[in-house]
Design brief:
Blueprint (H helix, E strand, L loop, with lengths): L8 E3 L1 H8 L6 H9 L5 E4 H14 L2 H13 L3 E4 L3 H9 L7 H13 L2 E3 L3 H11 L2
Parallel strand pairs: 1-2, 1-4, 2-3
Length: 133
């Protein structure tokens, strides 16, 4: 099997959740992605909030703690703060029916000029369309 190289990126909540929930339909796909995880993964604050909340309710607080420990201790992960004003503007300028969190995550990827890795088909479509402008 040929090794895939992934450059610096932002990883969407959908991928993190799939990685930390063994029963998720995308778990194996997420695990394969993390085998080739790049040297730099930007983790927006909103991803921390979404993933920790989802893991707490779908599995346990202990599982959420494991995720938070991973992203704060793994040297490849860089936690980044939100740019609320910029995210609000981006959300207001988007005509698609998409969550504010998704817009904020896409804006983080766009601002760092890195790839967005997501299992969310709508988010991927909007991001690719917007980046192509």
């Amino acid at each position: 099997m040929e090794k895939i190289e992934i450059g610096a990126c932002v990883i969407d909540s959908s991928v993190w959740v799939a990685l930390f929930l063994d029963g998720d339909t995308n778990h194996e796909k997420a695990a394969a992605l993390f085998e080739v995880m790049p040297r730099r993964v930007y983790v927006p604050y909103i991803v921390l909030a979404e993933v920790a909340t989802t893991l707490t309710y779908k599995h346990s607080k202990k599982q959420a703690d494991k995720f938070l420990q991973f992203v704060t201790e793994d040297e490849r992960c860089t936690l980044i703060e939100s740019s609320s004003r910029h995210d609000v503007d981006a959300y207001n300028n988007c005509s698609d029916k998409i969550s504010f969190a998704d817009i904020a995550i896409m804006e983080a990827a766009r601002s760092f000029e890195v790839a967005l890795i997501t299992f969310d088909k709508q988010m991927k479509k909007v991001y690719e369309r917007e980046v192509g402008k």
